[in-house]
Amino acid sequence: MCHIRQLGIADLELILDLQSRIHAALPHESVFQLSTREFIAYCLSDGGRCYGATWRGETVAYRMVYFPRAREFNLAKDTALPPSEHGRVAHWDTIAVLPAWRGFGISRLLNARALTDLARTDIRHLFATSSPRNSHGVRTLLATGFRPIRMVEKFGGKLRFLLYRPYPAEWGPPEDDGLLMLDLRATKELAAAFEAGWAGSAITIGAGGSWLSMRRHSLPFGNGRPDRTAASRQEAPS
């Protein structure tokens, strides 16, 4: 039976070892962004939440949630979410499972525990990123209530989906019955669709590729780009 527990700073070396083993086993290492020791330590203390999944006495997976607060790297800055709400943002950061333990629903258990705990906080906006090449990772995020809303460059120019979920509120209904399906490899077409107000709603994974189903959705904070001028005013020292 799989046991989920919240990890603490004493588990830092455990997470670093798991991260290294999981990264080394990936066929495309670029889909997994390595975290620094300092970042993991921050999340293990008061800068986030981290959970481990233990199976038969071995920790085989972990989930990290990051509270960016006033730090520079806040994914909300890539959206029109008002700066006054940036302190209520959490990043649905890294989830990683050792290869031998994939397919047992461990990610689902980790996500459920993290969401349950976040409901007792003042967090209202969840953001995540995922590589368009990581179709299974995108599917897991969709199953957790996230929707791709934009294409961004992160981690030194790597192309990523930006995904969002209101929390604990749910998504409202789409604006209409329109449906668009785009290949995950068609990154320019996907970026244009996001700009036009489409958001990802489901994914189809087949032998010939993966396709994102999209519906028109109005985001709670609008579909426009961030107001950098307003953000600068908000963050300027008094």
Relevant terms:
Aminopeptidase, 7-stranded mixed sheet, 3-stranded antiparallel sheet, 6 helices, globular
Q: What is the strand tally?
A: 10
CATH class: Alpha Beta
Question: Per CATH, what is the topology?
Answer: Aminopeptidase
Series of H and E elements: EHHEEEHEHEEEHEEH
The major β-sheet equals: 7 strands, mixed
The chain-level mean pLDDT equals 88
Strands of the biggest beta sheet: in what spatial order? Answer: 1-2-3-4-5-7-6
Q: How many helix segments?
A: 6
| Rg calculated over all Cα atoms | 18 Å
Label the structural class.
Answer: alpha+beta
**CATH level-two architecture:** 3-Layer(aba) Sandwich
**Spatial shape:** globular
Describe the fold and architecture.
This protein is α+β, with helices and mostly antiparallel strands. It has a single domain (about 1-235), classed as Aminopeptidase (3-Layer(aba) Sandwich). The chain is about 25% helix and about 30% strand. The chain is built from 6 helices and 10 strands, in the order E-H-H-E-E-E-H-E-H-E-E-E-H-E-E-H. It has helices at about 10-25, 35-45, 105-120, 135-145, 185-195, 230-235, and strands at about 1-5, 50-55, 60-65, 90-95, 125-130, 145-155, 160-165, 180-185, 200-205, 210-215. The strands form 2 sheets. It has a 7-stranded mixed beta sheet with strand order 1-2-3-4-5-7-6, sandwiched between helices. The radius of gyration is 18 Å and the shape is globular. The N and C termini lie far apart (about 55 Å). Residues about 230-238 have low confidence and may be disordered.
